[in-house]
């Protein structure tokens, strides 16, 4: 976490931010990233019901 030495040092803040993201990367990839259980069980089926795609239709999905 931040200390007095990193509070005003953009390079140190960038390193600290990178380290924090890297520490959470595995959790995000396995639990929250695209096409994980959350998406397969909740998002995908809900999207299918909402859009009710018919055979031959194509949908364009914009990922943010």
Describe the overall structure.
The protein is elongated and about 55 Å long. The longest helix has 23 residues, at 10-32. The chain has helices at 10-32, 37-51. It has 64 residues and is mostly helical. The protein is 59% helix and 0% strand.
SSE map:
Blueprint: H1 10-32, H2 37-51
Offer a concise description of the structure.
This protein is mainly alpha-helical and 64 residues long. It has 2 helices and no strands. The longest helix has 23 residues.
Q: Mean pLDDT, nearest integer?
A: 80
What multimeric state do the chains show? single chain
* Unreliable stretches covering 5 or more consecutive residues: none
Computed over alpha carbons, the radius of gyration is 19 Å
Strand tally: 0
Helical residue percent?
Answer: 55-70%
Largest sheet data: none
* H-E string: HH
Task: Give the overall silhouette.
Answer: elongated
Tally of helical runs: 2
Q: Helix- and strand-based class?
A: mainly alpha
Which labels suit this protein?
64 residues, elongated, 2 helices, single chain, mainly alpha
């Amino acid at each position: 976490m931040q200390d007095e030495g990193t509070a005003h040092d953009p390079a140190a803040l960038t390193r600290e931010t990178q380290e924090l993201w890297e520490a959470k990367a595995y959790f995000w990839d396995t639990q929250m990233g695209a096409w994980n259980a959350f998406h397969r069980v909740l998002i995908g089926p809900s999207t299918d019901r909402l859009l009710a795609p018919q055979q031959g239709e194509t949908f364009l999905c914009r990922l943010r």
